[in-house]
Amino acid sequence: MAQPKLEADLYTVGWVAPLPFERAAATAMLDETHDEPLGFERPHTDANSYTWGRIGDHNVVITSGPAGKYGTTPAAAMASSMLSSFPQIRVGLLVGIGAGISRPEEGYDIRLGDIAVSQPHGHSGGVIQYDLFKAKLGNQREDRAFLNSPPEVLLHALSKLQAEHDLNEPKFPKYLEEARTRHPRLAKRGYAHQGFENDRLFKTTNPNEEVQREQRDSTEPEIHYGIIASGNTLFKDAAYRDEILENIGNDCICLEMEAAGLMNHFPCIVVRGISDYGDSQKNDQWQHYAAITAAAYAKELLGYVPSRDLQKTRKAIEILENISRDVSDIRSGVECLNQDNQLDKIRKWLSPPDTSTNLHKAQKSCHKGTGSWFLQGTLFKEWMSGACPYLWLHGIPGCGKTVLSSTIITHLNRQCNSSHVVLDFFFDFTDTNKQLLHKLVSSLVVQLYSKCENSRKELDKLHSSCHDGGRQPTDESLFATFQRMLGYVGRVQIVIDALDECAERTDLLLWMKNLASVGPANLHLLVTSRREEDIESGLRRWLPDSNFVSIQQDAVNNDIREYIWGRLENDDGFERWRSNVDDQGFKRRRLNPSVFDEIVDGLMEKVNGMFRWAACQLDVLQKCLDLQMLREALKSLPKTLYETYARILAGIDEQYQKRAIKILQFLAYSKRPLTIQEAVDVVAVNPSRKPPFDPDTRMPEPRDILKLCPSLVCLVERQTKGKIILPELQLAHFSVQQYLKSEKIETTFPEKSIEIGMLFQQGMNECNASVSITRICLAYLSCPDDQVSKEEIETRFSLARYSAMYWMDHAKSAESDEDTQERILNFFLQQKQAYTVWRKLCDLDPHWNEESERNINLTIPLYHASLNGLQHTVEQLLQVKGINVNAQQFNHGTALYAASQKGHKHIVQLLLQHGADVNVHYWDDYIALPAASDSGHMAIVQLLLQHSADVNAQHTGYGTALQAASYSGHMEIVQLLLQHSADVNAGVNADFNPEIRKYGTALQAASYSGHMEIVQLLLQHGADVNPQDMIHGSPLKAASCSGHIGIVQLLLEKGAN
C-alpha cells in the first residue's frame, strides 16, 4: 500500500531523536508513515535524514544526528537544519535517553527505564546548561545558566496530561505494547524491561556499596518532572556528577547531552528515558528500553496538544531568528571556557616552559629566502613524505641552526590542520627550565593536547591517575602517555632545536631512540645540534648516516649574504651609507652600492658559514664613521668567534668593565634569565658600600645596559602568565656562554689588551663568579625593610626574589672562599633584617614570628644549608652552642631528611656524627630513608641502614622505602632493602590521606611505573599479586591503566585478577 505524500509545509511538529535507537523508538510511535514530501528540496546546508509520519492529528518529522556525534552542538545543528527545511514547524520534542539523578533518601526514587520530563521551575525553563556552571565555578559568579522555556502550547498540554494521570491510568504503556506488536523485532533487540536485578544503584562515597531500595511491584515506568541538566560531558564519574549537582540544585532529576543545544534554537520540551545513573557503573543495557519509554510518553503528550492551538503558535524558525545569534555567541564562549579551563589545569600541572620566545627571537633573524636551500632539497621532501622520517641537522657553532629551525617550523605551520600537527621545542642554555628532558616532553604533550582534541583523553586519564594533578607523573608514565597521544593524529611533525644545549643528553638520546622504535608510523622527527661526539654516536646507534645532514658552508653562506644585505638596508647604523646630500643641502635616500658591495664582499670572504660571526662584525661596522674607518675594520676582521668575543670585551670602556663583568657573571651562571630590571639592580649593587644598594643609583634608562657589553647580550621579550610583556636580558648566543666559561679568554685577547683579558678571565672563573653573585645577593637582601609586606618588597626591589631564591645555589660553588663562609654565617646569625626578608620572600614558614624565632633560631639555617649542600656552613652551624640537630623546620622536616632527599652524602655523614636520629619523624612525615630511596641516593640509603634506620618505616607520601624505590625504578636500592628484610607486602597506613599517598604496595608502585625488573624481583620475594587497596587498585589495574602490557601479561601468568 502506497504511503501518503504531503507537502513539507504541512509538518508542524519536529521530533529530534539524536541516536539511531532513539529514532527507531520514535518511528515505532507513528500512527502512519509518510513518503518524502511532494517536491521536497532541502537547503544545501541541511545534512539531516528524515522520517515523516502522523501521530494523532499532527504531522511529525523525525530526525537523528550523525553516527557517533554527541553533545549540544550536533543537536543544535540538527534542529537548525530541520527548521530550514520545514519552516512551518511550531513545536519540537527532544526525546531519548539520559542519566537519572536518583536520591531515594530525598524522595527522588528514580529507576532505570523511568521517564524524566523537563518542567519549568522558578526562573528556570526546565533545562540548565551545566557546562556554563562548570566554566564559572572558579569565578564564583551567581548568574544561572538557564535556557528558554518550552512553548506555551506544550506547557498547557503537559498540565493537562499530569492532571489526567492523577485521575486515570496513563496511555503510554499501551503505546509501548502497540509498538511491539507492530514491530516484533523491538522486543528481541532490547526494547523491553531489563529486569530489576539489573538495576543497581551504588553509593557515591563507596562505588562498591549498593543503595538499598524498596522493590517495585510493577515494571511500568514512573514519570518524574523537574530540571534536566545538559552539556557536553559524558558522565561516567559519580564525584564529577555530584560536583555539578551541588551548583545546579536539588531539583535536578536528569543529566543529558543535547537539550542545551536545542532550547534556545528550537522551542521544545525534553523527554528522557533513564538508562543509567551517570556513574562508573554506566553501561548500554537499558538504553533501548529507556528510549522507547520516552518515545511512548512523548506520543501521549502530543495527544493533549489541540491542532487548532498549534496552528496559532508562532513558527519555531521565527523564534530562532531572534535569539540564535546571541545564544550561539554565549555557547561558543562557554565551550572555549571549558577547553581553556582544562588546558589551564594541564599547563599548571606540568608547567611546560614557553619556547615561543625562542621561536620569535629566531624568526627576527630570518630574511627572505632563508633556509630555502633546505626546504627545497630532496632530503626535506623525503622527510615530509615519510620516506625518511628522522633527520639530524648538524653544523658548526653560530652557523644558524636555530634560525633554520624557526624557518622549518614556520613553513610547517602554514600547512598544518586538525589531522596534521606540528610540535616544536628549543633547548636553551640561558634557562635551566629549557634544558631538561622532562620539560621537553611536558611541552610536547601540552602542545599536542591543545592542538588535537582526540588525543586529550590520554592525558586527562594520566591527570586523573595523579590525583587530578595533585602529584607529578613519573617520566615513564608521561613518556608512555605521549606515545599513545601520537596515535590519535593523522601526521605529527616534531622539530627539536639545539640538542647540545640539553643538560641530560644521554637520557635525551635514549628517549629519542625509544620514540622512534615504538612511535607511530605517522611520526616525523627533525633535530638540530652541533656535531658533538656523544650526540653523533648516540644517534648512530639507530639512524643511518643518510639521515645525517651537515649544514654546508656554501648553502648557509647564501642565507648569510641575504642576512647581511637585510641589515645593511634596514639597520639605523648603516643609514650614513644609504643617504647622500644633494647640491641644495638636502639628504636624499639612496643606496650606495659600492660601499655595500665592499662590506658584503669583505664579510663573505671570511664568514665560513657562521651567522653569529657575521652578526658581530656588522655590530662593529655600524660604528665606522667614514670610509677609511670602514675599510680598516674590514681588513682586520677576526678569524674566529672567540677572537671576535675577545675584541668585543677588549673594546669595552674602562669605566664600564666592572659593571660588564657583574652582568656577564650573572648571565653565564644564573639559574634563570634576568629581567632587565633585575639586571639594572645587579649593576647598582656594591657589597662594599653602606648601604650596598641605593635605588637612586639605578640606570635612568634600563636599556642602556646593552651598551655595557654590546653584541654579547640581548633583550628578549617574554610574555608572562598574566599576558604582561617582560624584557629579559640574555647572553646573545650559546657560544658566548661557552667562551665566558672557558679558559681561553686571556689567550684570545690581543697582546696590547692582555691585562684586560686577565681581568675578564679572573672574573668569569666559576668560583670567583659564584663568590661575586653570592655577595651581591646577600648584600641586596639587607636593604629592604623587614617590616613591609612581601609584595611591597618585590615591587620596590626588583632583584629581591632572585636573591632570596637562588643565593644558596651560587653559595655552594663559593663556599671554598673563607670570606664568603663568614658572610653566610653572619647572614644566618647576625643580620636579622636580611634574614627576615629572606624568610618572608621564600615563604619558608607561614607560622613563623619573632616569638618562635627565639626558640628555633638555628633550625631553618641548618635545614636549608643541609638541603642546598652547603657543607662548610653545616659544619660551622653544628659547632654553635645549643644547636638541636634533630629539630624540625616547620612543614619541612629535619636537616637529615633534607640532606638525604637531595643526596648530600658528606652532610648526611656530618649530621649522623653529631647525633642526628636516623628514625626521627613528625606525624609520619619527613623520614630520611624513604626520601633517599625515592630519590635514588644509594650511598645515603646504605649509610642510613648502617645507622639502624627502620627499613619498614612509613612516610605519608612515599610509603616505605621499598615502595618509594619501586615506584621510582631504583633497582639496586630495591635489592639492598630486600636484603635488609624490607616487608615486600607492606601497604600504606589506612589513616593516611589518600590524596597525598603516591601508591599502595611496592608491587603496585612498580607495576604502575612500568619497572618490569623490579616487578619480577618483588614477585620472586613473595609479593602478593592481588593486594586489596580501594584507592590504588590492584597491581594488574595499575599496570593496565599505565599501558604496561608486558607487566600485565606477567601478572596474569602469576594469577592476578
From TrEMBL:
ANK repeats lie at residues 891-920, 924-956, 960-989, 998-1030, 1031-1057. Residues 655-749 form the GPI inositol-deacylase winged helix domain. Keywords: ANK repeat, Repeat. One of its GO terms (molecular function) is catalytic activity. The keyword Repeat applies. SMART domains: ANK. Residues 369-530 form the Nephrocystin 3-like N-terminal domain. One of its GO terms (biological process) is nucleoside metabolic process. InterPro entries: Ankyrin_rpt, Ankyrin_rpt-contain_sf, GPIID_WHD, NLR-like, NPHP3-like_N, Nucleoside_phosphorylase_d, Nucleoside_phosphorylase_sf, P-loop_NTPase. Residues 41-291 form the Nucleoside phosphorylase domain. This is Uncharacterized protein. It comes from Blastomyces parvus.
